[in-house]
UniProtKB/TrEMBL annotation:
It comes from Cytobacillus kochii. It comes from the Bacteria. GO terms for molecular function: monooxygenase activity. This is Antibiotic biosynthesis monooxygenase. The lineage of its organism: Bacteria, Bacillati, Bacillota, Bacilli, Bacillales. The keyword Oxidoreductase applies.
Length: 101
């Protein structure tokens, strides 16, 4: 298994708005080969810190996803989001191979 965390900070007043966006996400990644799971995590102490966790069967599956047209389409839409502050958010991405489960 392979997991990817994309962590970003937003103003705490906008955290609920971002959560709603993810509740209504396109779910295109769910159809990607090797996709296992998606989660949006919120830091318990810092409400504006959010983390997207994606789990894939393999690193190769994940890399195919990030090179796909669907991935590009989703991220192009994010850049066009009307709230310029949210559209400018750049996450810190960390990638991990699961070694024990």
């Amino acid at each position: 298994m392979y997991t990817v965390f994309s962590t970003f900070d937003v103003n705490e007043s906008k955290a609920d708005e971002v959560i709603e966006i993810y509740k209504n996400r396109s779910r295109l990644v769910d159809k990607a080969d090797g996709f296992v799971d998606f989660m949006l995590l919120q830091n318990d102490k810092r409400k504006g810190e959010l983390t997207v966790q994606l789990i894939f069967e393999t690193k190769e599956d994940y890399l195919r996803w990030v090179r796909s047209k669907d991935f590009q389409r989703i991220h192009d839409l994010e850049k066009k989001y009307p709230d310029k502050e949210l559209a400018a958010v750049i996450p810190k991405v960390s990638q991990y191979k699961v070694v024990v489960k």
